[in-house]
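REQUEST FORM: STRUCTURE PREDICTION
Request ID: SP-0412
Submitted by: Lab K.M.
Chain count: 1
Length (residues): 279
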Amino acid sequence: MIREVHTHGMGVRQGLGAVALVFGLAVAGGSAAGGEADVDLGGTWVLVAGRTAAGPLAVSRYAHVTLTFDADNLGGKGACNDYGADYELDGHSFDVIGPGIEQTSMGCSEEQEALDSAYFSALTGADAVARDGDTLTMTGEDVELELRLVAPWPRAEVVDKLWRLATWTDDAGVVHRPAWKPGLRPFIRFDDNGGASGRISASTGCRVLEGRWRMSRGAPYIARAEWRGDCPDRLMDQEMAINSVLSEPVLDVRTGDRGPKLVIRYAHVNGPAKVVYRH
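STATUS: Completed
RESULT:
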C-alpha cells in the first residue's frame, strides 16, 4: 500500500516542509522487530536497477533514488517523492509493514512518476534481502531491486570552508559562468558545531541566505532558511538553479587539477542540472 502526503511547490523555502514532513513519516512508525537479522542494512543505498512483473525499471543516468534503513524504519528519496515506511527483518526475510509506504506528492515528469510507482511497487513486493559487499539485492514474486551502498556525505571536507560558485549547469546541460550584483559574489558555507546541525550561509549572486542545516539519514538538509534581497531578470535563472539544488541537496566533493570542488545536485533531478563551487 502506498499513501500520498500532499505538499506544495519546490524551492528552498517551499521544499523544507516536504523534507521535514517525510522525515517525520519515516520515524513515526513501528520497528524492524522480527527475529534476528542476518543482513547488515546499515548505510544509504542508491538504486542501480530493478524490475517488476511489468518489466525493468527505467533508471536514468541522472536518477538518485535512495534507501536508508534505520533500526525502526526505512525511507529515502524517490525519483520524484520522498518516502518512508516501517519494516520487519527476520534473517533474510523482509516485509514492509503497517500502512505501507507513505510519500509526498510532488509534481514531476511522467518518467519520474513512473519510476517512483515501479520502485515503490517493487519495494513493497520484496520479501527477501541479500547483501554481497556493497551490493544489496531485494527480491520477491516477480520483483527485484539492485542497490549500491554510497559513502556518507564528506562532512569533514565540506564544513567550515567558504565555497565560491564556479559554474552552474541548467536542465539542458548548458554550463554557465556565475554573475552577481556588486558585493554579492555567489558562495555557500556550512558551519559545523560538532553535532547534528550547523549554520548555513549563501549568496545566489542577488539574494542572501541565512539558516540552519541538519542531518537526516546520513546527509544534510536545510532545516531553516531566511532569504533577503531581490534579483534582476538577468540573474533569475542562476537564482532558480541554486535555489533548486539547495531545496534537497546531494553533495559530492571531487578533486581536479584546480583543487577540490563541491558539486551539489537536486535530489530529485532528472537531468544534468548542478552547481559547482570551489574554495
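NOTES: The first strand starts at residue 2 and ends at 6.
Reviewed by: T.R.
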